[in-house]
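Feature request disguised as a bug: please show the residue count (229) next to Flagella basal body P-ring formation protein FlgA in the output. Example input:
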Amino acid sequence: MNKRTVPGILMLASQLAWGGTFQSAQQIQDSINQFVMSTLEAGGKYEINLAPPDPRLQLPNCEQALQVFAQTGEIKPGRNTVGVRCYGEKGWTIYSTVLLKSFKDVLVLNKSMLRNDIIRHEHLNVETRDAGLLPQGYITDVNEAVNKQAARNIPAGSVLNRQHITDPTVVRRGERVSIESSKAGVVISAIGAAMSDGAKGQKISVRNLSSNRVIQAVVVNAGQVSVNF
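Example output, currently without the count:
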């Protein structure tokens, strides 16, 4: 099996061909290559492995353009079954296996993080990994991870996943907070106690220390929540 490279794509193809009035195996593989490549994101990093057709096959030469299709309707990283169909007078359909690897630049922790640790830029490396081997939710954008809080203990070398991170906690359970409420343009302030941890924009329960009433308030900042009536 020979190997040839195109921008961003590695294709492995057989050079076998049938002669005479039979369909060229190379043409079949070229058609599959073109079909798979047309489904891929431009500028991506891919590796395509094609199973060579059985050289014993003697398919009539197709007088029309070959029609290529994915059995599942789309090409995904991993094993795919691709069909090639001839709609000519002596029509035929064969199937081939295509193994697709899609490589992504993902964020990898270079040190272990404990739950509630804040993730900084210096804690992250960018590494190229086979996306087909990664669970969904892997992070490729550093801005999506920096200054986020670890939702659990994460060992060094882990590919950072959205399930690993959360917005930083700015209000802690039991802390005193300033409750601000507005009505008809009038801002009223009171002192309360947070009944749970909260991140910016999150709604938490707060006990008003003056009335002893429990209310739902939105975290605005450290030590500050807001209630709109």
